[in-house]
Specification:
Helix content is 30%, strand content 30%. The longest helix is centred in the N-terminal third of the chain and has 29 residues, at 197-225. The protein has five domains: 5-234, Ribosomal Protein S5, domain 2 (2-Layer Sandwich); 242-315, Arc Repressor Mutant, subunit A, CATH 1.10.10.400; 330-543, GHMP Kinase, N-terminal domain (Ribosomal Protein S5, domain 2); 556-618, Ribosomal Protein S8, Chain: A, domain 1, CATH 3.30.1370; 626-694, OB fold (Dihydrolipoamide Acetyltransferase, E2P) (Beta Barrel). The model has no long low-confidence stretch (mean pLDDT 91). A hairpin with a 4-residue loop joins strand 20 and strand 21. With 700 residues, the protein is of the alpha+beta class. The protein has 14 helices and 29 strands. Its EC number is 2.7.7.8. Mg(2+) binds at residues 489, 495. It holds the Pfam family KH_1.
Length: 700
């Protein structure tokens, strides 16, 4: 019934197996990939004809089924549906290296679906997902220039490790995900504990060796069992006549328009040229124009790219008049928003971020649920990219995949500089509101986010800045661009973002649109990026040399540690005790399993009041210590005195005063405050008290 085909390879001492022919046989291509007891399924499907667009309509969805780890989604809704942030980020990791490997002119709709069906808690599924998607495409009839594969590299105890386990990654100073073909790296995303440029390059080289092994095996498997690819006549190629017609009308005008310094003026000029080209070659109302409108638009875009690239390579001049290493003018406004805990406006050229830092207690933590279990993130960054930032009308609502990706890059870059929880027990939320955009808004978010934390009084360990680098590569000749514009990102060959300080790198992300980028080119890009990064960091330090005092509007947090055996006493039956403390003092209280209690309030007196109550509940009576207590009841043989919240002792009638007492009610009543000394605590925890021991001795 089934014609199963299998393949097994070994990467860094770990076996990876591929299987097809049993699951999802009606898809264009499908594979099951397994390493250890982690198993992923990936399908590749495509429509038979091109979509009405001048781009590849590729959709990638990656999902981690909770059943793969023997779990069910928490909350009321048990069915998995909307992708989590982690799943969106991994979907992007699959998309970014595979997209450039479709042949030019292929515009058929393609969908890649990847599911984690079994998870062992040891083998990470994300690098396998990239390889699985590539394998499904390779053995399908969907055209693909070359197979792609993924790998992760960690730095554990001074040694680089390929595809480390989940447990090993907890000790790693590096989390590098990369993907590429047998010949070149196409995508890099990494977060590091301030590694040097040389260390990063070494990790990339090691990771690419693992990628080569996988790509070579997938190619051989494709030759052996793969379906014949779709015919080349499905590719939409721009006719030479269209190229010539567009060039004749637009070339001279674009030579001037692409040198206009201001973005909006340049785009208006480009828009006018496009309008003239379309009206001339595709007149409105004409049923069958001589030139296809979509091909005309694509030819115009290619002409713009050719002119801009030639201008940079031959003249060393960019659209806004800068040289290839020049950084745009930087302006920084600290404490821009008076009632926030911390804020900064970071403007670099025509890219601007209004960054806001908010501090809070544990209840402000971002709670997440994944295959690893539930977690509460004490630091997170939300990135907002409204349509007005590029002068457009558009959708406003939940974040798109681009916003999620940009926000996470900035967040991970800044995570490396956070103080330890013991030193700064606050949950930190950052917002990056992009109010203008013309290239590298994620790096503006890093600068603005760092400054807003310093403005809020967060004792960052070492400030960082970020920069986006570009590349123009033609026939072996290349030019690296610092601080790229939006047009240079769109029409160039590389987008390489790097964050860090003068000592090392905290995050980096690279997307490459063409093969041929060597380690030597990457080395040039990293070194040039360091120059630009330090220039930006210097401007930031001029605006904010050190973290400020915390805002008066920020809450205050005090922490104290109690014995784990006392946690139940503070919480009380059904939470009764802790709710009473919160109602009585107006504070927020969080207790973790280690017995660390965080008390949050904007009012210091409220915090001290709550601390006193908690210390009273958790304190234990000490023999020989004097306490101020409250009489809770009077009996014939003495008085019971509460010396600590919920802790009473007996002061016998003979220990109440220096003289003989006939009737206790003659000398004390319920509610009186008395000073007593603890004489003894017996095996049953009963406390023997003495008021007499605190009094001056009677004269003989």
């Amino acid at each position: 019934m089934f014609q199963k085909q299998q393949m097994e390879i070994e990467v860094a001492g770990k076996k990876i197996s591929f299987e097809t022919g049993m699951i999802a046989r009606q898809a264009n291509g499908s594979v099951v990939v397994r390493s250890g007891e982690t198993l992923l399924f990936c399908s590749a499907c495509a429509t038979g004809k091109a979509a009405s667009a001048d781009f590849l309509p590729l959709r990638v969805d990656y999902q981690e089924n909770f059943s793969s780890a023997g779990k069910t989604l928490g909350g009321f809704i048990k069915r998995q549906g909307k992708l989590s942030q982690r799943e969106i980020l991994i979907s992007r990791l699959i998309d970014r290296p595979i997209r450039p490997m479709f042949p030019e002119g292929f515009y058929n709709e393609v969908q890649l679906l990847c599911y984690v069906w079994s998870y062992d808690g040891v083998t990470a599924p994300d690098p396998l997902a990239i390889t699985a998607a590539s394998a499904a495409l390779a053995i399908s009839d969907i055209p693909l220039v070359k197979p792609v594969a993924g790998a992760r590299v960690g730095l554990i105890k001074g040694e680089f490790v390929v595809n480390p386990t989940i447990q090993e990654m907890q000790e790693s100073r590096l989390d590098l995900m990369l993907a590429g073909t047998e010949d070149a790296v196409l995508m890099i995303e990494g977060y590091a504990d301030f590694l040097t440029e040389e260390e990063v390059l070494k990790a990339i080289e090691l990771g690419h060796e693992a990628i080569r092994i996988q790509c070579h095996a997938i190619h051989d498997w494709q030759v052996k069992i793969g379906k014949p690819k779709m015919k080349e006549d499905i590719l939409l190629v721009i006719p030479e006549a269209t190229h010539q017609a567009v060039e004749k009308i637009a070339k001279e005008k674009l030579l001037s328009a692409l040198r206009i310094i201001k973005k909006q003026e340049r785009e208006e000029a480009q828009g006018a040229i496009k309008k003239q080209v379309m009206e001339t070659l595709c007149p409105e109302g004409e049923d069958k124009p001589a030139h296809d409108p979509s091909m005309v638009e694509k030819a115009l875009k290619e002409l713009e790219s050719t002119i801009m690239r030639k201008m940079i390579l031959e003249e060393g001049v960019r659209s806004d008049g800068r040289g290839v290493k020049d950084i745009r003018a930087i302006d920084i406004a600290m404490s821009y928003l008076p009632r926030t805990h911390g804020s900064a406006v970071f403007t670099r050229g025509e890219t601007q971020s209004v960054a806001v830092c908010t501090l809070g207690g544990e209840t402000m933590a971002q709670r997440t649920e994944s295959l690893e279990g539930e977690d509460a993130d004490r630091f997170y960054l939300h990135y907002f990219f409204p349509p007005f930032s590029v002068g457009e009308v558009g959708r406003v609502g939940p974040p798109g995949r681009r916003e999620v990706g940009h926000g996470k890059l900035a967040e991970r870059a800044l995570r490396a500089i956070l103080p330890e929880k013991e030193k700064f027990p606050y949950v930190i939320r950052l917002e990056s509101n992009i109010t203008e955009s013309n290239g590298s808004s994620s790096m503006a978010s890093v600068g603005g986010g760092c400054l807003s934390m310093m403005d809020a009084g967060v004792p960052v360990t070492r400030p960082v800045s970020g920069i986006a680098m570009g590349l123009i590569l033609e026939e072996g000749k290349f030019t690296i661009l610092s601080d790229i514009l939006g047009i240079e990102d769109a029409l160039g060959d590389m987008d390489f973002k790097i964050t860090g300080d003068k000592e090392g790198i905290s995050a980096f992300q690279m997307d490459i649109k063409v093969e041929g980028i060597t380690i030597d080119i990457m080395k040039h890009a990293l070194n040039q990026a360091k120059e630009g990064r330090l220039h930006i960091l210097e401007k930031m330090m001029q605006a904010s040399p050190a973290p400020k005092q915390m805002s008066k509007h920020a809450p205050r947090i005090e922490t104290l540690k109690i014995k784990q055996s006392k946690i139940g006493e503070v919480i009380g039956p059904g939470g009764k005790q802790i709710r009473a403390i919160i109602e009585q003092t107006g504070v927020e209280i969080d207790i973790n399993d280690d017995g660390i209690i965080s008390i949050t309030s904007p009012n210091f007196e409220q915090i001290e009041k709550a601390k006193a109550i908690i210390l009273g509940i958790t304190s234990e009576a000490e023999v020989g210590k004097v306490y101020e207590g409250k009489v809770t009841s009077v009996v014939a043989f003495g008085a019971f005195v509460e010396i600590l919240p919920g802790k009473e002792g007996l002061c016998h009638i003979s220990e109440f005063d220096n003289f003989r007492i006939k009737n206790m009610t003659d000398v004390v009543k319920e509610g009186d405050t008395v000073h007593v000394k603890v004489l003894e605590i017996n095996d049953r925890g009963q406390v023997k008290l003495s008021r007499k021991a605190t009094l001056p001795q009677a004269s003989a």
